[in-house]
Structures are given as structure tokens and as C-alpha cells.
Amino acid sequence: MKELVEVIAKALVKNPEQVNVNETTDNSGTVYELHVAPEDMGKIIGKQGRIAKAIRTVVKAAATRENKRVMVEIL
After folding, report:
1. What is the distance between the alpha carbons of residues 61 and 44, in angstroms, rounded to a whole number?
2. Residues 6+ apart with CB under 8 A from 72
3. Residue 57 has what pLDDT?
4. pLDDT above 90 for 26
5. Residue 22 in contact with residue 9, Cβ under 8 Å?
6. What is the four-CA torsion angle of 27, 55, 75, 41, rounded to 10 degrees?
7. Does residue 15 carry a pLDDT above 90?
8. Average pLDDT value for residue range 61-74
9. Of 3, 7, 30, 39, which has the fewest Cβ atoms less than 10 A away?
10. Contact 29, 69 (CB under 8 A)
11. DSSP state of 66
């Protein structure tokens, strides 16, 4: 899952070397924290959050196949 988030983010941003994904686990499931360069934040979020929503949808679909609960936070 972590690699999936990383590959998607690196394909979208101008500075792929600054993409960082941290994985933490809590009671509700796994949380992936996506960190990008400040100038790439708009590209990851998209207009009205559409890109961010699409990233979350793809990751949740992949997690559902493995019977896991995941969340993607963009920081």
C-alpha cells in the first residue's frame, strides 16, 4: 500500500525526490501520511480536492481487496 501511494504521488508532482510516505497503525487501521514539497501541494490536492479524493479511492479499493482499513492524509 505504501508503495502504491508513493508511485501515484511521484507521478503527479514536479519534485518526486521530495515525496515521503509514512505509515502508522492505530485502532482504526493503517494511516499513510503523504508529505510533498510545498509547491507541489496544489497538484496533489487538485481542484476542489478531486485528485486527493481519487488517490484515497484507489488506495481504499486496493486495501479492500486485502480486507484492511486505510486512510491517506496529505500533509
Report:
1. 19
2. 5, 31, 32, 34, 52, 55, 56, 59
3. 96
4. no
5. no
6. 180
7. yes
8. 92
9. 3
10. yes
11. T
Q: How far is Cα 59 from Cα 11, in angstroms, rounded to an integer?
A: 15
- Average pLDDT score over residue span 7-26: 94
**To which residue does cell 482499513 refer?**
69
Domain containing residue 17? 1-74
Q: Kindly compute the dihedral angle of the four CA atoms of residues 7, 57, 53, 37, in this order, to the nearest 10 degrees.
A: -20
Q: Is the pLDDT of residue 13 over 90?
A: yes
Q: What is the CATH number of the domain that holds 48?
A: 3.30.300.20
φ, ψ at 20 (rounded to 5°):
-135, 130
Mean pLDDT over 14-33 rounds to: 93
First to last CA, the chain: 18
**pLDDT over 90 at 63, yes or no:** yes
C-beta separation of 59 from 73 below 8 A:
no
Number of separate domains in the chain: 1
